[in-house]
Amino acid sequence: MRRFRQVPYVSIMCIFVILLGATPLLAKCAHLKLHVTPKEAYVFVDGMPVGPGSGVIWADPGEHTLAVYNYGYKSYTSKFTAESGKTTTLSVALEAIPGNVPGPWGRIELKGPLGGAVLLNGTTPDFLVGDVGESTGGKRRLLVPPGDYQLTVLSCCSGSLYSGPITVGENQATIIPLSNPAGKATADFSAGKSLGALPRFQEAGAAVTVAVAKPTAQITAGSATIDCGASTQLTWSSSDAPRVEISGMGAVAASGQQSVQPSQTTDYKLTATGPGGVTTQDATVNVNSNIQSTLSAEPAEVRYHKVGDRVEEQGSATLTWSAPAASTASLDPFGSVSPSGSRTVQPAPGKTEVGPVNETVTYTLRSSNACGGSDTKTASVHLVGSIESGREAEAETLSLKLPGNSVYFATNLPTKASPEGGLASSQEQVLEQLANNFKQYVQFSPDAHLILEGRADRRGSVEYNMSLSQRRADRVRSFLVGQGVNAGNIETKAFGKSEQMDSATVRQLLDQIPNLTDQDRKKIRRRLPVFVLGNNRRVDMVLGSTGKKSTQYYPYTATDLKQILK
Asked: Are residue 59 and residue 110 in the same domain, yes or no?
């Protein structure tokens, strides 16, 4: 492959064709007739310098990459296919980059063969600033910002003509004879004092001025300070810099954005390298490694009650913790946990001997993160209660269960004709539980006795209701005796329709009953008069040794409620 003006040879086949003078064989080469604008634009084929300006390129048949560069213009790159013995015509007009470049200025003058590609601070075509002919002095000027540069001059096919560092002073010219680089010299460039901002490239007849711009660079972080584990957005932009890098990220586009998540305070340095020098700018992201963790226990006090080998009561507490900036966490004595969460605990005392329990159980949250931060928090649960040997405690436990719940009857039941009837199935179950607990209790307290208080609703005469309430107390007594309770431990009383439970009391009891939904409570309130009557048809039980009366919870959720409510 060759440029017809400089006669450099790139294609090996065509090289031999030319050298051997075998003109008929030239037909085997393909030709690209190229016209470029501006006329000084430099041509590269397959990454190799061909030369400046328009002309004909000889190439081996096949696919090639054509690139056209001119400083101050947007580059052109395209694939083309060379066909044996054929000529392809192509015109390329580069688009100028608008705007002027500010001074001050220094000048580079190169003395040597014309046509060599001149590159500053890089070896790829992106760093092209012109050709040797544009920096020979006189009306052709290569102007750069004062500073240090790495100069490379490439010649078609023969490789590098020159490579080395140069320093260009303000309002001075650095002159390099390419045939004798050791003869490098400096001279006054007084004309630079009067030069202001210039276009990157301008030509007027034989006069050409290339004004190389110093790269610009800007980088910012969306958040200058972040917590460990958080991220922030880097935004950067640059100009006149073919090579742009960010420390820790490597090469990046000229402008862009990227999310970063540093684990420690990090300085992101943007380095923009171009023919006009190197420009850097920093954006520092400070990482807060502190962990503001929390740990709480609710409730702060729970009860513990043990009788013999059996734990009768062991309260629970909920531990809740949060360590949002932590990556790892442990909760003693349980081990590793997620940085945020909750857990139900049932603390147990360290003591085992009989006596009161009064201890504090402490839980410790330890958290850390990848940024070197750590934190420790504690929360305590106060444990109170007792450990008892067995017999007395068992009696105490049974007394807490007695006398159970009151028993309820349907209207006018039981009757005189069937005094052993009238008990609904759900109420028999209540009495069975009462009988079992009371039989155990009298083993510890033989003199214990139950007082059964029969009651009736307000309907009917005083005499009728007194007799009815006595039948109800007697029916409960006979059932308990049938369950094995000693009749001598039972006493009955009849109250008739005295001491009636009113609507307000029924509503108050309704609100206390657990396991009722709001919908259930609304339904009951709509039929409150009926339920007031039902609440008064009952037998209350009283444990004589303590005076404790049975709970007056009406069986609203019993499966046989309709039978009881008749």
From this structure: no
Other C-beta atoms closer than 10 Å to the C-beta of 98 total 8
Q: How far is CA 128 from CA 42, 122, 163, in A?
A: 9, 8, 14
Asked if 303 and 378 sit in the same domain, the reply is yes
- Mean pLDDT value across residues 489-500: 96
Which residues constitute the domain of residue 86? 2-93
CA distances from 409 to 235, 506, 562 (A): 81, 16, 11
Together in a domain, 115 and 159: yes
As a whole number of angstroms, the distance between CA 188 and CA 110 comes to 15
Single-letter code of the amino acid located at 405: N
In the structure, how many helices (H) and strands (E) does the chain have? 8, 42
User: Looking at the structure, do residues 405 and 379 belong to the same domain, yes or no?
Assistant: no
Q: Mark whether 403 and 540 lie in a shared domain.
A: yes
Distance CA 307, CA 285 (A): 62
Number of folded domains that form the chain: 5
Amino acid at 91: S
Name the H helices within 314-414. Answer: 391-401
pLDDT in tens, 54-102: 999 888 899 999 999 999 999 999 998 888 888 889 999 999 999 999 9
Question: Strand 294-298 and strand 256-260: pairing?
Answer: unpaired
